[in-house]
Design brief:
With about 160 residues, the protein is α/β, with parallel strands linked by helices. The protein has a domain of about 110 residues: 3-Layer(aba) Sandwich (Rossmann fold), CATH 3.40.50. The protein has five helices and nine strands, in the order βαβαββαβαββββα. A hairpin with a 2-residue loop joins strand 7 and strand 8.
Length: about 160
Amino acid sequence: MIISVIGDSNPSPELLHIAEEVGAELARHDVTTVCGGGRGVMEAVCRGAKSNGGTTIGILPGSDRRNANDWVDVAIPTAMGQARNVLVVKTGEAVIAIGGRYGTLSEIGHALKAGIPVVGVRTWSLSKDGKIDPSISTAQTANEAVEKAIKIAGSQET
């Protein structure tokens, strides 16, 4: 199983800790982690996964694989800039969003449009016509986010 993790490139220390724990939990469940390969949440989730024997994939916005963080096993340079966000979310069977800004929001939108489930930890909430849209399943902890993502991904038709 592959799960995408998305989030802020400049998060709070608390979100960095959550991201590292998400990576560790994914590795403990033998799940491959895919992310944007950069800093912040991406680096923390890869560090957590690698520290627990996991495999990490970084889909980079630029053309130089050396720009991946030190914990990426497979760096995929795309030279696509933010357009690579589609590849990040489409690679996973589910998405875990941790915090985030507009780049994360775009990834959430691409995932939901493609029917890929999203679990959010302190991330965006969506509403339409003044009503909360429940498309993003929320989690309070790293463990809860990983458990939900694995369960949701495992229930998806392939």
